[in-house]
Each structure stands twice: as C-alpha cells, then as structure tokens.
Amino acid sequence: MPFGFFSRKPAAPSLPAGLRAYAVGDVHGRLDLLTEMLTRIREDNAARPPADTRVVLLGDLIDRGPDSAGVVDLAMRPLDFASLTVLQGNHEAMMLQALAGDHEALTGWLRFGGSESLRSWGVSLEAIERYEYSRLIAACRAVIPPPQLRWMATRPRALHLGDYYFVHAGIRPGVALHRQSDQDRLWIREPFLHSTARHFAVIVHGHSVTPDVELLPNRIGIDTGAYASGTLTALGLEGEEQWILQTG
Length: 248
Fold this sequence. Notes:
Purple Acid Phosphatase, chain A, domain 2; 5-stranded mixed beta sheet; 10 strands
C-alpha cells in the first residue's frame, strides 16, 4: 500500500506545558458539595508538582438545591491556590432574564428550580406562590444583592485552553468557533450530544445529566446530577493526562 494511504492516529488532546485545569460540573445550589469539591481539588493539586492551576465552574451554580445564594457568594471569592473562572449557565441566564421583567422567563425559571433559589436569598414562600409577577420581581430585586446580579450577568460563556473548550451546554457541530452562538453554548443538547464529529477542540461541558462521566473522543460530559445524586464531578487535566474527582 502506498505510504500516503496510511492513516495517522489523531494526537491526544492536551494542555500547554505547565498548565493544570480542573473543570467542575453543575452545582445547582449544593454549597456543601462545592465546598467539599474545592477541598478535594486543593488537596489533589497540592499532591502534584507546581503548576499554573485553573479551576473552571461550568455554570448552573443556582436552582434546584437548597443554597444557591451561598454557592454564588463562595464562587465570587478568589481561590488561594488557583485562578478561578466561572462560566454562565442557562439557569443563571433564565434568572437574569426573569428579574429583568420577562414574565415568560420567570414562569420557566420558577418551574425549573428558581423557587429554591429565591428562598435561599430570603424571598418568602408566600411571595413566590401568591404575588403577581411584577410584585414578585420587585421583592426579588429587593433582597438579592445587586453586585451578585451584576457578577452573574458578566460571566463568560466559554473558556478555551489548549485542546479543550470549556462551556456549559455544548457547541453546534460543524460550525466554526467564531460562529458559535451563546444560545447553543447555554442550551444545546442535540445534535451536539450524539455527534461523533471532531470539533475544533474537545468540548468539556455540563448541562445534560448522566449517571457517569461521559469520556468521549470529541466531548467530556461531567454533569452527574449533583443536586439529587450527591455526586459533584470535576475533571482534572494536565498535558495529555485526564482524571476524575467526585464527592460522596
């Protein structure tokens, strides 16, 4: 067979030398699990050679679980051992849209975990269940600190490091990086989840819950349903190495 007919095995994805990254899946109001995970990451990082360490939270800090307010407060603080990047998820986007006065978004947000978030910020159950929407939005904005809302609104939608692209939900297969939309970055499931195409990078994402980590050639899904399962997952990356940390 002529030399040109031999296929070359694709190179393993990697991070640049000296860089170490930990990506953390959807927290959804579980302050207890995020606190535990950050301790595990700190210990894992300390057991390895010194590196430029990055921690990336993949969005959906809020909703469903009991302490969204506490999770946001913790995520806004700098880490003492690594740089921290917090991406925006679709639940943060829903919250911001709802509190900007979009009644349709408010309906969806309350149905998918927003009520738990509001109670963690001190909004009463009576207000959530009985207030008409304009009054409820006013009650929310009265108790949620404006700096927290501004912080959530300015979170990036993605982070590109080496051969990995960190994003909340995923990307649109077959579309160049510069043409990807925030709608897809925050919300997409199909055709992303079943695509076998090689993307511009290996996509590290949350958003779509699976009982186990999905380690695939073109994407790595790490949303293990922490708010219900008690298992919050982090993916560690350095060079060509990949490893998993989990709570519980």
